[in-house]
Amino acid sequence: MAQGSYVEPTYERDTRYINDRITKDGSDGWPVEAGRYRLVAARACPWASRAIMVRRLLGLEDVISLGLCGPTHDSDSWTFDLDEGGLDPVLGIPRLKDAYEKRFPGYPRGITVPAVVDVPTGGVVTNDFAQMTLDFATEWTEFQREGAPDLWPVGLREEMAPVMKRIYTEVNNGVYRCGFAGTQEAYDAAYDRLFTALDWLEERLTGQRYLMGEHLTCADVRLFTTLVRFDPVYHGHFKCNRQKLDEFPALWAYARDLFQTPGFGDTVDFSQIKHHYYEVHRDVNPAGIVPAGPDLTNWSDPHDRESLGGSPFGDGTAPGEIAAAERVPQANNPAVGPDGQLVR
Fold first, then answer.
1. Which residues bind glutathione (predicted)?
2. Using one digit for the tens of pLDDT, what is the confidence trace for 131-149?
C-alpha cells in the first residue's frame, strides 16, 4: 500500500472542496430527495464523524444511506475494504475515487470523506464537510425524525459562527498543524495556538453545559470529534502533549457528557481511529505500530454536568436505538454493549 506524505514545513490544509449543495429548492441541481443520496464516511476521520453524528441526531438514517470506508487508505483513495468483496453494496465500487472520477474525470485533488454521492449516477455531489452538516440540519427538515434537535438555530447563528470558526482553525485543524509540522518553529507556534484555544474552551465550559449554553448545537458536534481523539491519538501521535484531555476538568467532563449522549459516543470506533492515524501517517510513525493504550473505560465515568442546568435536546428527544448494520462493535468501544447501545 503506497502511503501519502503528510509532514510539511508549515502544514496548510487544502480547503478547495466540491461546494455543490443539496437543497429544498434544488438550486444547485441537487434537490432534497429521500433515498437518492449516499453519505460515504469513515469512522476514523473526524470530519466524516461529524456527518455520521448529525445524520443520526436528526434521524436521517432511512433517508440518506451510509457507506463506510475502512480506517486505512493509500495515497490514492479511501476504499470499501469493510464490505464483502471490497465493494460498496449500493454503489458497487471499490474506491471512493471512482465516484469522484465518475463526475469529474481526472479529479485533481485529494479524495476526502465525508462525501455525498448521487446513487442514480454514481457521481460525487459534494465533499464540503462543513456545509454538509448545516444542510442536513436546515434543508432536510421534512425528513428529520420527530423530536430532532435544532442544531443550527437561527437566533444563535451570529454568535455561533465565530465560535465554530475558532474551533475549526485552532482546535480541529490545530492538532494537525502540530502533528504534520515539519520544523520546530512551526510545531512550537501550532502547539501554543492549540493550547491557547483549549484554555479558552476550558474557561467557557466551566460555567455552562454546552458551547452555546443550555442545548446541543452543531458547535458541540464539531468540537467533540477532536476531543474524543485527543488522548488516543493527538496527545502522543501528534505531540499535543502539554496535558491530556482528562487533565482539563471542565473539558473532560464536557466530553464525557457528550460521549454518553445518544448520537455521540455510540458512533465512535476507537479501534478504527487508532489504526487510521498510526498506520496511515508513516512519515510521522514510520513503523506503523498502533499503541495498546490508553485505557478508554473512563469515558463512562460520571460527569456531573447536569448540575449546570440545560438539557441536550431542549424540547426534543434523543435518537432511538442504532440499526444493527450501523452498530460499533463492543470490542472497539468499551462504552457500548453487545447491542451497540451506550452503557450508562
1. 78
2. 999 999 999 999 999 999 9
Which range of residues forms the domain containing residue 167? 154-332
Q: Does the residue 84 lie in any domain?
A: yes
Distance CA 56, CA 293 (A): 29
Exactly one of 11, 37, 45, 240 is catalytic; name it.
45
**What's the whole-model pTM score?**
0.96
Distance CA 122, CA 37 (A): 9
Q: How many domains does the structure of the chain reveal? A: 2
Do residue 79 and residue 138 come from a single domain? yes
Task: Report, in angstroms and rounded to the nearest whole number, the Rg of the chain calculated over CA atoms.
Answer: 19
Residues 175 and 302 in one domain: yes
Catalytic pick among 11, 37, 100, 176: 176
Q: How far apart are CA 278 and CA 276, in angstroms?
A: 6
Q: What is the pLDDT along the chain (344 residues), one digit of tens a residue?
A: 556 778 888 787 888 899 999 999 999 999 999 999 999 999 999 999 999 999 999 999 999 999 999 999 988 999 999 999 999 999 999 999 999 999 999 999 999 999 999 999 999 999 999 999 999 999 999 999 999 999 999 999 999 999 999 999 999 999 999 999 999 999 999 999 999 999 999 999 999 999 999 999 999 999 999 999 999 999 999 999 999 999 999 999 999 999 999 999 999 999 999 999 999 999 999 999 999 999 999 999 999 999 999 999 999 999 999 999 999 999 999 888 888 888 76
30 is in an annotated binding site: no
Cell numbers linked to 7: 509532514
Domain end (from 111, 143, 175): 143
CATH number, residue 134: 3.40.30.10
Shared domain check, 134 and 66:
yes
CA distance 103 to 19: 14
Q: Are residues 177 and 89 in the same domain?
A: no
CA distance linking residue 322 with residue 340, whole number of Å:
7
CB 257 within 8 A of CB 308: no
Task: For residues 188 and 280, state if they share a domain.
Answer: yes
Asked about 176 being catalytic, the answer comes back as: yes
